[in-house]
Amino acid sequence: MGDRVSRPPTASTSCSSAQWRDNPGYFLDDFGFARDVIVDLKIPNLKLQFDFYHCQIMHGDVTMRLREMMPIVGHVRSPAFRRATNLPARN
């Protein structure tokens, strides 16, 4: 039992920042705020799900924001992937 506690986590959990236009009242409505929450919590397997669509609407410069966020990014989401694979919209 003690061995399990001392081992690093084997799975990651992602949280996502979503923009206010489609998701009014969403708690993590800013990538900077999401970064601050992840850094402040100091949970090694808590990562950011970086969504290109939400980043473009909130911040505009997706490339620079992705570069800035890479140390905490655990998953990248692209709306083009959803269209190309015919996945249903999540709303």
Topology at a glance:
Blueprint: H1 2-6, E1 13-16, H2 31-41, E2 46-51, H3 52-58, H4 62-69, E3 73-77, H5 79-84
What does this structure look like?
- This protein is α/β, with parallel strands linked by helices.
- The protein has one domain (2-84).
- Helices cover 41% and strands 16% of the residues.
- The protein has a three-stranded parallel sheet.
Oligomer: single chain
Overall radius of gyration? 15 Å
Structural class call reads: alpha/beta
Distance between the termini: 42 Å
Number of strands: 3
Spatial ordering of strands, largest sheet: 1-2-3
Shape: globular
Sheet-strand content, in percent, reads 15-25%
Counted by DSSP, the helix tally is 5
Number of domains: 1
Unreliable residue stretches: none
On the 0 to 100 scale, the average pLDDT is 76
Helix and strand sequence: HEHEHHEH
